[in-house]
Design brief:
The radius of gyration is 17 Å and the shape is globular. With about 240 residues, the chain is mainly β. The chain has a single domain, classed as Jelly Rolls (Sandwich), CATH 2.60.120.
């Protein structure tokens, strides 16, 4: 399977401010989140205050005047063949051992049992300084409610600019009209001079590293926006 995936990626390449929180950590101090802006309040989640062994997280800045989030406002647990997330405020999740360098691919399958409405989820690469105000990373997220995706680059605590966001892409499996469920496998493949964003094995966007404007080496991980209930399996890096 690994050889097949890397062969597909090779073909694509040709054509195409809060401290971090560890397992058992306490509240998130001093970092506000994107959650709850305008008429989009954040769902109340009561978590255990624990993360799976080895994992860290960081909330998004909530905005001026908003209280700091607490790790108990999310639930992130090992479940079955992977991990299950319920949020709560938007955040990134990562294990320090998962580092990408040079040519590599990070992939995961996301399964929602019901519609997540306008919210997005996905993967990130190129993470650095994730514990302080100079944090930075590149992230790729999808929104199955309408089949759209976004690529953004975060640098510091300011709102990250959107570098790619077409309306929809047919590769993305949309919410099932009966029960709102959706299953999508996402991959970020980093080549020598370019980065490829794939969903279900199909290229939805290819960009040069110069277009992205940020180094791709660094921490990789998972991004979960607010108000989500999603299972993640098959997460890992292939080099």
């Amino acid at each position: 399977m690994r050889k097949t995936m890397m062969a597909q990626l090779a073909l694509v390449a040709v054509v195409g401010a809060a401290p971090m929180v560890a397992q058992g950590g306490g509240g998130m101090a001093g970092m506000p989140g994107m959650a709850g802006r305008g008429g989009d309040p954040t769902t109340k989640v009561v978590g255990s205050g624990q993360l799976p062994a080895g994992w860290l997280m960081r909330f998004d800045p909530p905005g001026a005047g908003k209280p700091a989030q607490d790790i108990k406002e999310i639930s992130f647990v090992t479940m079955g063949d992977g991990y299950h997330f319920k949020s709560g405020p938007a955040a990134i999740y990562y294990n320090p051992k998962d580092m990408g360098k040079g040519i590599f691919a990070v992939s995961a399958t996301f399964h929602q049992a019901k519609s997540m409405q306008h919210e997005t989820y996905g993967l990130f690469i190129g993470g650095s300084n994730l514990q302080d105000s100079t944090q930075g990373y590149i992230y790729f997220v999808i929104r199955p409610s309408d089949g759209s995706y976004q690529v953004k680059v975060r640098g510091g605590n300011a709102a990250p600019p959107r570098v790619a966001a077409p309306p929809v892409d047919p590769a993305i499996v949309k919410d099932d009209p009966k029960d709102g469920s959706a299953l999508n496998t996402m991959t970020i493949h980093v080549a020598k001079d370019s980065v490829h964003f794939l969903v279900n094995g199909k290229l939805v966007k290819g960009m040069s590293k110069a277009e992205l404007g940020r180094a791709t080496d660094g921490q990789v991980g998972i991004r979960i926006n607010h108000n989500l209930d999603v299972h993640v399996s098959g997460y890992g890096i292939k080099k």
